[in-house]
Structures are given as structure tokens and as C-alpha cells.
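Take a look at the protein record below with the fold in mind.
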Amino acid sequence: MSEHLLKMRRISKTFPGVKALDDVQLTVSRGEVHALIGENGAGKSTLMKILAGVEQPDPGAEFTFDGAPANIRRPLDAALKGISIIYQDLSLFPNLSVAENIVMGLSSTGSWWQRMDWRGAREAAQRALRELGVELDVTVPIARLSIARQQLVAIARALAFDSKLIVMDEPTSSLSSAEVELLFRVIADLKQKGIAIIFISHKLKELFAVADRFTVLRDGKYVGTYPKHQIDEEQLISLMVGRKLEQVKRDRQGSGEPLLTVKGMSKQGNFKDVSFTLHAGEILGITGLVGSGRTELAQAIFGLGQPDQGEVFIRGARTVIRTSEDAVRHGIAYVPESRQLQGLVLRQSVVNNISLAILDKLTNKWALMVRKKEIGLANEYIDKLDIRPQLPQMLVEQLSGGNQQKVVIAKWLAADPKILLIDEPTNGIDIGAKTEIHRLLRQLAQAGMGIVMISSELPEILSVSDRIAVMRHGRIVGELSAESATQEAIMNLAVLGSHAAGSECPERPAAAGEEV
């Protein structure tokens, strides 16, 4: 039996107007964790879609799996060979239960008239979750779970299929540090069983913690494959981007007038008695552990779900925001955590997505869209944000994650907001695109915009924010200046609710079963 489980050679893929892959290769051994890395747009997702049978390569490709030529023409072919892919958008069915999502396609019930074995399905789902060390009610709909829990269900589904190769695309993007450690333990167990993992992530520290080898792609081309012990982070970054990255500098000239003031805002089960002020020209970073109420707070401010109590003031005037339309009218924009589920219409073009928030401004006196104005707007932001490829009619679902995020930001910048709420701005984005977005946020703040940036990445919070508010169990338990903040101080607040163990800090007690 060959040591190599997967061999892909001479893989090219051409789309209209762009060559996504050009003579790429990938070899993965049994029982190894193989990191596939590169900037957004480097071709990683396209290569994995070819592996999954979602896309077909150009003629001349060579593809073997488990020692035999592989003819994968559709996703079912990949599944039958033992290839499971966990996409970044999870590809779960929100209205179906945890059990249904895990066992869907796992086995046939026989003839068309036979009833589904629901008890067996639930037991199979529970077994898969137990392999992850996770206890979940398998009867609840996926839509009722947090994104972190949904990610674990997607991983459990791959385990249920008894796969020989599992592709994990940004698997830790919405997981807490404890859940990441749990995932890495599961991966170690899978390696012992001879299962191979292709691990795609932009978090280099995680890759060095879990991967055995690295394959680097750049601009759709194969750069090379390197054992972990022969390369370091700095060398990897250089191979990925082909250029030196300049660190974003915080150039703060002092904050301006109060733009947004939140007083005593509460929502049962999400956050409690939250108050803060955002000034013109500053970036207020809000961080905390998964489940601390950060996202729910931003959504309440934007009118997506009404708080139980609290007041909002814009430029000192009390403002009632009941809907997102109210928020937009008052100059507030919101870039959500999940760009694919909440921020974009994936099967629409770049131009259609950018114009979504200001359709009323692109119509004539007869309420008809002026297409020329719409395309002109799209080209303006494609150029400003360097969205690639520069094809306004390209479907957003065909863009890389970093360029999708730029489209979401462009959509809201086109609305000319004065206040920007942005949740996990660089989630699942490569280091080059991350630097570009950080620079953009600093430029927007320097131009007078007030920005609330929610992020789980402490280096991002520390490098981009002017002030940092830390949430724990739905409360803001501390605020730090960017100059005095450290990762240790932030984590003490996030985990202990204080700068140091034993200090007093008002907060509610943890609920039963709640993570800290």
C-alpha cells in the first residue's frame, strides 16, 4: 500500500476572465496533517472544490487517491471514496436537527417506502459528537446553535462518514481556545488511526501547532511543499505573499466629538447593563470569550433584535432604533461576523452586492435603476479596496474570503456611514488581506469615522484599537487604553472579570454549564 493517500498533479482551472489554478500539485500522506496555505485568491478553495468534485479541472490533470486513479466528477464520488470536506461556510441545513445534519447521506434506508430509523440516526449522531467530546441535544435545529457549536457539528458529520481524508477549511474561525484545544486532540486521534487531514487556516501559530507539512500556493501557482521543521513563520509569510508586509501603524490625533453613546443596554440572556461612548476618529475594540455577548450587543445597536432596556444617543441626541433601516438612516453601518450567511447575496454579482444598501440613491425619477451609476459605484469601490479580480459582474460566491469581506465593507462604505460596527473583520482572511483591512479601518478612523471593532484575535485588538473594552458574561468588565493593554491583562478580564485574580469587579455569576 502506497504511503501517499492523495496525489494531485498538473491541476489547472480556468474561469472566464481568470486562471484560478496553473499547474498546481498536492501530495498528502496517510496519517498526516497537511497545511494548505496562501493568500485569499491563491487558489486553495478552487483546488479543494476540484478534490470534492464540485469543480472539474482543465484537461491534463493527474489525480490518484488511495493508490488508484480517481475519477471524481461529483461530490458523491468524493464521499464514496472517503473524502470529507468541511467548508468554511459549514454547509449545514439550519432548519434540520443536529442528528439529521450529521447522518444525512450516511446510509440508505433501503426501498423508497421504508421509514427512516430516527432512533438509529440519533444514536449515530451522538456517537460522532462523543468522539469530539461534545454533548449536544441532537434533536434541536442547527439554527438554534451558536456558530461555534455549528462548526463542531460539521466536524462530527465528517467523522460519522468514516473518512480516509478530511479537509478542514478554517475550522477554528469561530471556536473558543478550549474548543480549539479539543479539536486538536481529535485531530491527533485521527492521525493515530491513519486518517489524513488537509488543514486550511490563516492562523499560522495554529498551523505550526498541528501541521506536519505545508504546501504553499500563490496567485494560483504551486510554490512548494515544506516539512514543519524546515521552515518558520517569517519564511512562510514571505512565500505566501511574495512581498514584505508593513505593519499598520496607529496614528491617533485625539478623539473627536461623541458619535455614539450607549447607556444601560440589556437583553435577557445576552448582555446586561452595557454602557460606552464612541468618539469620532477612534476605533473602540470590544473583545471577550465566545458567548460573552459581543455580537448580540452590536446587533441590538443596529436594530437587529430589540434590547429589553437601555438608551442610544447619536451626537448627544437620544435616538430610537427599532430596525436596521432606522440605523442606516442615522448613519450606522454593520458588517456582520458571518459574511456568507449575513453579509452577502452569494449568487449575485459584486456590483449587485455593493449597491444593496443604497438602491434608493441609484434610481431615477421613475424609480428605475440607473445601471450606469450602479456599475460606476461598484468600479469605484473595487478600485478603492483593491477587490480582485476586478470584475464587477463576477458572482460573489466565486471570490476568495478576503475579497468577499471587502465587498461587504464596500457595500456599507457606499452608504457613507459615520459609525461602523464591524464584527470579526478578518475572520478567515489571509495575512495580506488582513493587513489591508486593518489599514483601511485606520484610514476610515483618521477621516473622522467612529468604529466599533469586535474581534476574538488579541493581536488584532491590540494593534488596531485606540481603546479596548472587555466583555464577560454579557457585561463590560473593564476598559483599557491601547498603550497600556496587554494580552495578559485582556485575558484576565475576559476569564476572571478582573485585572488580577481576587480583585473586585461587578458581574453576574456564571450560569450552569456556561463556559468561562
